[in-house]
Amino acid sequence: MNDMTKQFEQFAEMMKSAMPQVHKTSKNGFEIRTKVLEFAQNQAWQDYHAKLGAFQTSVVKEGDEVVTTVEMPEVPGAEAVLETANKFYDFVSNNKAK
Q1: DSSP assignment, residue 93?
Q2: Quick check: 51 and 73 in contact, CB under 8 A?
Q3: Dihedral (Cα; 25, 29, 31, 33), 10-degree rounding
Q4: What pLDDT is recorded for position 61?
Q5: How far does Cα 98 stand from its chain's mean position?
Q6: Mean pLDDT, the chain, integer
Q7: What is the rounded distance in angstroms from the CA atom of residue 88 to the CA atom of residue 39?
């Protein structure tokens, strides 16, 4: 093998390691639904934290008493996450909104 061929092979190997890897395996339905559920959970919590940053407090005098009211957002439960996941899944599978 001459030096030029060896240099080209070394260059090719170097370029392989620099190129992004493309995964050739496709995900099955379970893996896709799990990923959609993960997205939905993240979205539900992002929405919660955005609302938490804007909670409302009011102080009102009612007669001889001062009444303080604090309105906090509802913590997302499983129902909220599943509802969001269904919206994402419908979008991905091109289903029309119900």
Answers
A1: T
A2: yes
A3: 140
A4: 83
A5: 23
A6: 81
A7: 8
